[in-house]
Design a protein that fits this description.
The complex is a heterodimer of chains A (343) and B (354). Chain A is an alpha/beta fold and 343 residues long. Helix content of chain A is 27%, strand content 27%. The chains are: A alpha/beta (343), B alpha/beta (354).
Chain lengths: 343, 354
C-alpha cells in the first residue's frame, strides 16, 4: 500500500484524503490546528445560497468517518528533505514520514487589513473586516457600533488588499465580491432601517448564481452599489467614520459619514503555503501562490516530482472549486502512484 | 480611537536620525513669514542640546516652488540640490538637515531618483562640475528639522520652563498637528510614523504634556497645494481647503495648531484672517482665531524663550491666548518693539479676528 501525506485539513485536504482513501491508499492528514475545516470552520453562511457552513463541515466529518484515514491534529511540518519523488517529512513532535506522494493543501491566508493604514483598521473603533463580521454572525451577535448603538449607515469596502498595487497584491481574490453581496444581505436582515452601501471597483459575479444574488441584493434588499475605491477613512467625534471616495460613474468625489465600515479583505498565500513552497523548493507565481506545473493541463502538479497541489494554495477558489480541484489532485496522485508501482 | 493601534503603526515607521554634526539647509519662505523658527532651531540645537550644526550663507533656494509650478526643469533642480550637497561635502559634513517640507520632499525625490536611475546621478555630477567645478558626496543621513526636534523631544522637555498644560485648569492643551503633505505622503518610510498617522509632531505634543486632536480632516491638505495658491484664479480652492479643516477641527476646541511645513503654517494662520473677513467667522474662542505655531516656536515656548524673540508677533492670529494658558511670561508692551527696544509701530488690526 502506498502512503500519501496530505498537509492541511481544510476543504481541499479532507476532500483529497477522502478520495485517496477510497482509491485504497494509506493517507496521513497533517493539520496544525486542533480542528479541521480551515477557514471554513470560522464561517457562518456560504454564498451564493446562504447555506450554513456547518453543512459542508458535517459532510467533511462524515467523509473522515467513512474513509477512516489518519489525522494528526496540532501538528506542524518542521523539516522537509529529498528530491525526485523521494521525500522525508519531519513534524515538530519528532515524527518522521517517507511517503510515496505528498499533497500540499495548505490553503490561503487573509490580507491583514492593518496594512491599508488609510482605512484605520485596529485604530478606528467601528472599522471591522469581513472575517470579523462573519465571526459576529456565527456567534449570533447583533451588529452594533462599539458604543452600543445600532448602525444607521454601513459601508462595505471591496478589494481591500486585492488588485491593489500599493499593498503589493495585483491578483483578484475572486470571492470577496460575492462575499460582500452575501454579507450585505445578511446585514439587511438584521438592520432593516439601515442604509447599506458597497464601494466596488468591478463586481466580478463569475460563478453560478452569483449574478442572481447581486441582482436580488439591489432589487429585494435595497443594497446601494457605488463604483469607487475608497481613498481614506477618518473617525468623527461620535466614533462614526468619515469616508472619502470617488464615484467613478458620476465622476464626482464623494464624502459620506457611516456608522460601520466593513473591509472585504482579500486572499493571499498563507504563511504555511509560503513556507512549504520554500521547503519543497517549488516555484511561486507573482502573487506568491504555488505555481502549478502547467496552469491549464497540470494544475495539481508542482514543479517537483511526487509533490501535488490541491485547493487555494495555488490561487483563490470558491469552496465548490476547491472540492473539484482536490478531487482532481487525488486522481493525479493515484495515477502517479499506479505508474510508479508498475514501472 | 485605539491609541495602541496607532503605536503599532508608529513602530513600522521609525527612521534613522543622526545624533550630531548637522549641515543645515534653510527654507526660503520660513525666514520671511516665521523668522524666529530657524533661529530657535539653531539655538535649541547649539545651546540646549550642545550639538554641532553648520548654517551656510552660501545656500540658495532649492527651487522647489518653481519646480512644482512647472517652471524649473528636473535637470535644473537636481543640479541645485547637488550644489547644496557639494557645499555640505566641502564643509566636511555628512548629515543633511532640511528646514522646509517642500525641500525635504524635493531632496527625497531626487535622492530616490538617483538610487533608481544612477545615470541621472552621473549626469547631475557632470552638470554641476561643468557649471561650478564642484563635486559632492551623498549625505549619510538626511532628515527634516522636525525629525531632530522629535528625536530630542524628551531632552527638551527635561529643560522646560513650561509645558503644554492649561495653567488654570491643569488639563492638557488640545493641539492640532498638521504635517506637510511632502513630509511623508510621497515617501511614507521617510517620515516618523509614516503618512497616515504621522508621529513626528504628535510625539512632541505628547512628550510636552499636550493632547493631540485627531479630527476627521486631519490628513487634508492645508490649502497651499502650490497651483491652488499660485494661480490667482484658483485661490478660492486654497481657502476652501483650509476652511474645510477649520470646520472639522472646530468642535474639538483646539488651543493651538502646530505645523512642520512653512506653507501649511502660513496658510493655516493667514487664511483664518481671510475667512473672518469674508464670512465674519472665527474658529477659536471669544472672536480669536486658533493660534498656529511652528514646532520650533512651540519648543521655544516650552524652553521659556521670549515669545517676541521667537517671532510670534509676526503671526496673523494672536498667540497671546495660548501664552496665557501656558503661563508664558511676556511683556505685551514689547510685542512690536525692535531688538533695541525701539517702537516699530503697531500693525493695523483686522475687523473680525485677533
Amino acid at each position: 500500500m502506498n502512503t500519501v501525506v496530505i498537509i492541511g485539513a481544510g476543504v481541499a485536504g479532507v476532500e483529497a484524503a477522502s478520495q485517496l482513501s477510497e482509491f485504497g491508499h494509506e493517507v496521513i492528514l497533517i493539520e496544525k490546528n486542533s480542528y479541521i475545516g480551515g477557514k471554513l470552520a470560522k464561517w457562518d453562511h456560504l454564498f451564493p445560497n446562504l447555506r450554513p457552513a456547518s453543512e459542508i463541515l458535517n459532510n467533511m466529518e462524515e467523509k473522515i468517518k467513512r474513509s477512516g484515514f489518519k489525522i494528526l491534529k496540532n501538528t506542524e511540518i518542521s523539516g522537509i528533505s529529498g528530491h525526485n519523488g523521494k521525500w522525508s517529512l519531519l513534524t515538530h513532535k519528532g515524527e518522521s514520514f517517507e511517503p510515496d506522494a505528498i499533497v500540499i493543501a495548505s490553503g490561503f491566508g487573509l490580507f491583514d487589513a492593518k496594512r491599508k493604514e488609510e482605512y484605520g483598521y485596529n485604530i478606528y473603533n467601528n472599522v471591522i473586516t469581513s472575517v470579523d463580521l462573519e465571526d459576529k454572525l456565527k456567534k449570533g451577535n447583533r451588529i452594533k457600533m462599539t458604543n452600543g448603538k445600532t448602525p444607521r449607515r454601513v459601508a462595505f469596502i471591496h478589494c481591500v488588499g486585492s488588485r491593489d498595487e500599493k499593498s503589493g497584491n495585483h491578483h483578484c481574490s475572486k470571492v470577496c465580491c460575492i462575499t460582500g453581496v452575501k454579507q450585505a444581505i445578511e446585514l439587511r436582515n438584521q438592520l432593516p432601517q439601515a442604509e447599506i452601501y458597497c464601494f466596488y471597483m468591478d463586481l466580478r459575479m463569475y460563478g453560478k448564481d452569483f449574478e442572481e444574488l447581486y441582482r436580488k441584493a439591489q432589487e429585494n434588499y435595497d443594497i446601494q452599489f457605488i463604483r469607487g475605491r475608497l481613498s481614506e477613512a477618518s473617525e468623527n467625534m461620535d466614533e462614526s467614520l468619515l469616508i472619502k471616495a470617488e464615484d467613478t460613474l458620476s465622476g464626482r468625489p464623494l464624502k459620506m459619514n457611516v456608522d460601520l465600515m466593513i473591509l472585504l479583505v482579500g486572499i493571499e498565500p498563507g504563511e504555511d503555503t509560503i513556507s512549504l513552497c520554500k521547503g519543497f523548493k517549488l516555484e511561486s507565481d507573482s502573487s506568491g501562490f504555488i505555481k502549478p506545473r502547467d496552469m491549464h493541463i497540470q494544475r495539481n502538479l508542482s514543479s517537483q516530482e511526487g509533490v501535488f497541489l490541491a485547493g487555494a494554495c495555488t490561487c483563490p477558489m470558491t469552496i465548490g472549486d476547491t472540492i473539484d480541484n482536490a478531487r482532481a489532485a487525488a486522481i493525479e496522485v493515484h495515477n502517479y502512484l499506479r505508474k510508479k508501482q508498475s514501472a | 480611537m485605539k491609541k495602541e493601534g496607532k503605536q503599532q503603526v508608529w513602530k513600522e515607521y521609525q527612521k534613522d536620525i543622526a545624533d550630531n554634526d548637522y549641515y543645515f539647509q534653510r527654507s526660503c519662505i520660513r525666514q520671511n513669514f516665521f523668522p524666529g523658527s530657524e533661529y530657535a532651531f539653531l539655538k535649541i540645537l547649539r545651546e540646549e542640546l550642545g550639538k554641532n550644526i553648520y548654517d551656510d550663507a552660501r545656500q540658495t533656494t532649492c527651487t522647489g516652488i518653481g519646480y512644482h509650478s512647472d517652471i524649473i526643469p528636473f535637470e535644473t533642480i537636481q543640479t541645485v540640490v547637488a550644489r547644496h550637497f557639494a557645499l555640505m561635502t566641502e564643509k566636511g559634513f555628512h548629515n543633511f538637515v532640511i528646514s522646509c517640507v517642500t525641500s525635504f520632499g524635493i531632496y527625497s525625490e531626487i535622492f530616490e531618483t538617483w538610487k533608481e536611475f544612477p545615470s541621472e546621478l552621473e549626469r547631475t555630477r557632470h552638470y554641476l562640475k561643468e557649471a561650478t567645478g564642484r563635486e559632492f558626496e551623498l549625505p549619510w543621513n538626511m532628515t527634516h528639522a522636525s525629525d531632530i526636534i522629535y528625536k530630542f523631544r524628551d531632552e527638551i522637555f527635561s529643560k522646560r520652563k513650561c509645558s503644554l498644560v492649561n495653567g488654570d485648569t491643569g488639563e492638557p492643551l488640545k493641539i492640532v498637528e498638521h504635517i506637510g503633505c511632502h513630509y511623508a505622503k510621497i515617501f511614507p518610510r521617510k517620515g516618523v510614523g509614516g503618512a497616515e498617522f504621522p508621529q513626528v509632531l504628535s510625539g512632541m505634543i505628547e512628550s510636552w504634556g499636550g493632547e493631540v486632536v485627531d479630527y476627521p480632516e486631519r490628513r487634508h491638505c492645508c490649502g497651499f497645494g502650490f497651483r491652488h495658491y499660485l494661480v490667482m484664479a484658483d485661490r478660492g480652492y486654497s481657502v476652501a481647503n483650509s476652511k474645510k479643516k477649520f470646520e472639522s477641527m472646530e468642535p474639538y476646541k483646539p488651543d493651538a495648531i502646530v505645523c512642520n511645513c512653512p506653507g501649511c503654517t502660513m496658510f493655516m494662520d493667514k487664511w483664518q484672517y481671510v475667512i473672518a473677513e469674508m464670512e465674519n467667522k472665527t474658529y477659536g474662542t471669544n472672536g480669536n482665531g486658533i493660534p498656529v505655531l511652528t514646532y520650533e516656536e512651540l519648543a521655544g515656548l516650552v524652553l521659556g524663550y521670549d515669545p517676541w524673540d521667537l517671532g510670534l508677533q509676526m503671526h496673523q492670529i494672536d498667540c497671546e491666548p495660548l501664552l496665557d494658558k501656558m503661563k508664558v511670561k511676556y511683556d505685551p508692551a514689547l510685542k512690536y518693539a525692535g531688538k533695541d527696544g525701539e517702537e516699530l509701530g503697531v500693525p493695523l488690526q483686522p475687523n473680525f479676528i485677533h
